[in-house]
Amino acid sequence: MSDQSSTESGITTANVTVQRSPRYLRFFFVGISIGVIVALILTFSFPADPQFTQTQVFGFLVIFTGIGGGVLGLVFALVVDRVYSRHVITTTAERTTVNEAPAAEAPAVEAPAADTH
Q1: What is the structure's pLDDT at 67?
Q2: CB-based contacts of 59: which residues, under 8 Å, 6+ apart?
Q3: pTM of the predicted model as reported, rounded to 2 decimal places
Q4: Which regions span the lipid bilayer (predicted)?
Q5: What is the DSSP letter of 97?
Q6: What is the DSSP annotation of 10-77?
Q7: Which residues touch 55 (CB under 8 Å, ≥6 apart)?
Q8: Would residue 115 be called left, alpha or beta, if left means φ above 0 and alpha means ψ between -120 and 50 degrees?
Q9: Rounded CA gap, 29 and 36, in Å?
């Protein structure tokens, strides 16, 4: 990913590639959330079944639509990643290193003597 090009006085420059990437977990949770909303809509859009309560129907639908929404969210994230992978930028980055002396080795600063005339 990086190509070392030069080092000079604590500054290291390298050629790096920069690529944007989607956050898969966020896409997954958004997909699950949309699946839960779809389950809620489907639960109340059909007439009640005498064998199951609306809570049970909602629970079953949440399982299937939540998983489906999560999978669709991940597929959408993969498509977004594929689109952004075409927009790769190569640039130069600089890393600066600073070597400071530890506090124990630093010379002590003495206070000037007071004049007592």
Answers
A1: 94
A2: none
A3: 0.62
A4: 27-46, 58-80
A5: -
A6: TEEEEEEEE-----HHHHHHHHHHHHHHHHHHHHHHSPPPTTS-HHHHHHHHHHHHHHHHHHHHHHHH
A7: none
A8: beta
A9: 10
Burial 64-83 (b: 16+ CB within 10 A, else e): ebbebbbebbbeebeeeeee
Q: From CA 59, how far away is CA 18, in angstroms rounded?
A: 43
For the stretch 16-47, pLDDT in tens is: 888 888 889 999 999 999 999 999 999 989 88
Which element (helix H / strand E) includes 6? strand 2-8
**Distance of alpha carbon 98 from alpha carbon 37, whole angstroms:** 53
Provide the Cα torsion 110, 115, 116, 117; round to 10°: 170
